[in-house]
Amino acid sequence: MSAETDADHVGDTDEPLLSVENLTVEFGDESALLEAVPARVKDRMGWDPSRLRAVDDVSLTVEPNDVVAVIGESGSGKTTLGKSAIGLEEPTSGQVRYRGYDIWELRRRKQIDDLRFEDARKALQIVHQDPGASLNPYRTLMSILKEPLSRWYPDMSNADRRERVLELLDECGLTPPLEYEDRYPHELSGGEKQRVALVRSMLVEPDLILADEPVSALDSSLRVEIMDLMLELQDLFDTSYIFVSHNLEHARYIANRADGRIAIMYLGEIVEIGPAEEVIRNPKHPYTKILKWATLPKHPDRAREAIAEDIPLRTLDVPDLVEPPSGCRFHTRCPQAHEVCRTDPPDLIGSNGGHSAACFREDPDHEYWESPSLDEDGDRDIMGR
After folding, report:
1. What is the CATH architecture assignment of 18-281?
2. Which pTM does this prediction carry?
């Protein structure tokens, strides 16, 4: 299903497909994100209108035919990280390199016609959480899906475009495809809309897709089906995914089957990253352990035992995103926090197999072990049953 391109792929180098280096993304008072917050909420929080740091000094690599599942609570920065990685959200500082070229530097230089930049725009695509919102309700599916082919492959004939769309509709389970080409988005189910969104992103044979909560809006019966389809398309097109989700089980499913990785984000930082099954079976950061705890076992007897345990958090309150805690940002909620966690920010500490965590407990020689526990300071607010 390969299509002819007008330019060679961007820079054949030994570098990763995509690398995010020391990326920081801040939103100022003028941003739509902050404008959406009611004034009374800003006043109650003592809001500093200057900057909100959604992503803070994050580095990440994506290899060809890779899956990196980025997990975290709402407000952790996972979607902002993904959008900056594919060129949709401009970073405040840091670099995003696609095949060796800094895509944001090309953009800042106004090199919009630079073939390297155009190739990156085609190669980095997105599948939204709500596919229906991204489909024009006044156009048929064939009209919608032929548009990217018209843009990126202008020399392709109209007949060839139609044939290519029908072929991929069939590949994605929208069969028989001839019955779908004249339908409008409102005539589709939620699962069918998500399949159409996958078709549209795959038509240009991208190198990387940001899948932003791609199954969260679907019925539970359809979620595995769509993730399996994503993996089938990955094998067909050699595509990589940044899979954004708040659900650890979804991340485990798709990343483990693709031999990929899971990255855990908390308040704008990656606090743990490693091979999917290793992160699930042997979580190193206390926050990852809590996310795992929150995903209760499906067996009824084991679920009852899990519910009977105390909630493994010092407090349920999420810290202020504008003024995050000093030191380790998780220390205000961490049941294993020591005094040093208040003041010193931990770096990602690696181990064999590429499994790393930003936690002092991973260093047996760190002063953490001699530092008093926050329990001893009487600064603990256990949420128990």
Report:
1. 3-Layer(aba) Sandwich (3.40)
2. 0.85
